[in-house]
Amino acid sequence: MAATARSLRASFSGVLMRLWRSSLGKKYVMAVTGLILFAFVVGHLLGNLLIFAGRTQINEYAQVLKSNLPLLWSARLVLLVSVVLHVVAASQLAHTDRRARRIRYSKFHILDSTLANRTLIVSGLVILGFVIFHLAQFTLLVVDRSYATLVDAAGRHDVHRMMIEGFQNPVVSVFYIISVALLSLHLSHGVASSFQSLGARSKKIEWNLKRVSLIVAIVLFAGFASIPVAVLTGLVK
Ligand code: HEM
Fold it and tell me: Looking at residue 1, what is its pLDDT?
């Protein structure tokens, strides 16, 4: 019995490893992890927009999110694993792609790459840098340590005040706006290609997916950018 379970486990991990080693498998990994990250981004935007509802609403929301530690850490683990797999698969696929191209074009010494691929890689790298700064600023609270001491009248961490103080710095706000613009550009290609990798490949579906991805990307950009813009213009204070 134990031997059967062991051999089942071994063949399952064998299948997973073979899948990971193939380009197609890596594309699946990129698609699934990309869609997980996309779902997080949509949820995060909806939560952040509570800044327009008021201090009580957003501070209460932030407190509820952090109150269930097992759930919070499970979600963080899923996000972290998704980011790592997404980045590793992307860089390995880009490497394979470059090598194949170099062989194909070695006669002409041309190193080409499509615009979509180039922007996906560059925007992906800027987003990674942005997320590291963002976590340092608003989660680890190490960019400005005084954020840790901000407390509202009900004794909760004053996330509302922290966001206002953060975005009153125009350099920070502009950096956020550029980063979310690149994130939207990344998603406008990424979401459609994730569904294509998972099998949505007919011409009609492809066309619809591209349009929906573009609309979603524009809405996400407008939503995220509205927060620093509202703080800089004094709409939220
Ligand atoms: C204007 C745009 C954004 C605002 C105002 C914002 C705001 C915040 C705030 C206030 C927190 C800390 C929550 C808390 O500790 O209570 C946070 C955490 C976080 N944000 Fe954002 N965010 C923005 C954009 C983004 C984007 C575009 C991404 C991803 C690409 C992102 C990823 C994260 C992550 C991963 C966390 C950590 C969540 C955790 O604690 O586990 N954020 N954000």
Answer: 63
